[in-house]
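--- STAGE predict ---
source: upstream dedup step, 1 unique chain passed
mode: sequence only
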Amino acid sequence: MQINLINGYFVEVDPLNYTLKQKYRPKDKDGNLKEKEAVRTLGYYGKLEDALNGFLRHNQIDILSDLGMGMHEIVKNIEESNKAAVRAIMDVLNGG
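--- STAGE serialize ---
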């Protein structure tokens, strides 16, 4: 089973664990985006809750990677990121 989240993130569920992964487009040696999509494994978790917390952490890092933000903007982006993540999780749980 796979739980699709946002921004390319998803959780693969198997009997032993929950694996957090992300689809992305890698860059070539010149810094250009490649055509083919790739998948990276971000972590293995024993509980879905832990995998979702890992997702929130990684998603926030992605959003905050712009170093030119002030503290107010960082907090606003974290709040927006968390709201979007919760909506996506609720959609999945509600069969959406």
